Amino acid sequence: MKAKTIGFLLTAMLMLAGNSLFAQKEKSTATTVIKISSQCDMCKKRIETGLLYMPGVKNATVTVATSTIEVKYKKSKTNLKELEKAIAAIGYDANDLPADTEAYNKLPKCCQKGGH
After folding, report:
1. How far, in Å, CA of 42 to CA of 50, rounded?
2. Rounded distance between C-alpha atoms, residue 69 and residue 65, angstroms
3. Burial level of 76, CB count in 10 A (0-12/13-18/19+)?
4. What pLDDT, on a 0 to 100 scale, did the predictor assign at position 113?
5. Whose CA is closest to 47, among 94, 2, 81?
6. pTM of the entire structure?
7. What is the predicted pLDDT for the residue at 6?
8. Which domains, and CATH codes, for the chain?
């Protein structure tokens, strides 16, 4: 009887510890949506690829129709401001941060504003 009680308590403790670790892992990541100045599928590929090279970025998905990007990232490695700076450095507006002029001028015409 005592062995069953000890076994039950150990199982319960392991389950609680596992849930606690899972909750901490969930809190260490964040997801944000950023308004960008994308125009086409070339923009999509360029921005997604560029962000995936950033430390902490787990996933980046551009929706061309709404000119937005959803980014999942590790909060200990990066933040919204750094994500916006990276997008601007690629040549695109990111929320209120304008694109880097030099990078923007190097984009193909179809990727520049009004370049459909």
Report:
1. 12
2. 11
3. exposed
4. 84
5. 94
6. 0.76
7. 58
8. 29-111 (3.30.70.100)
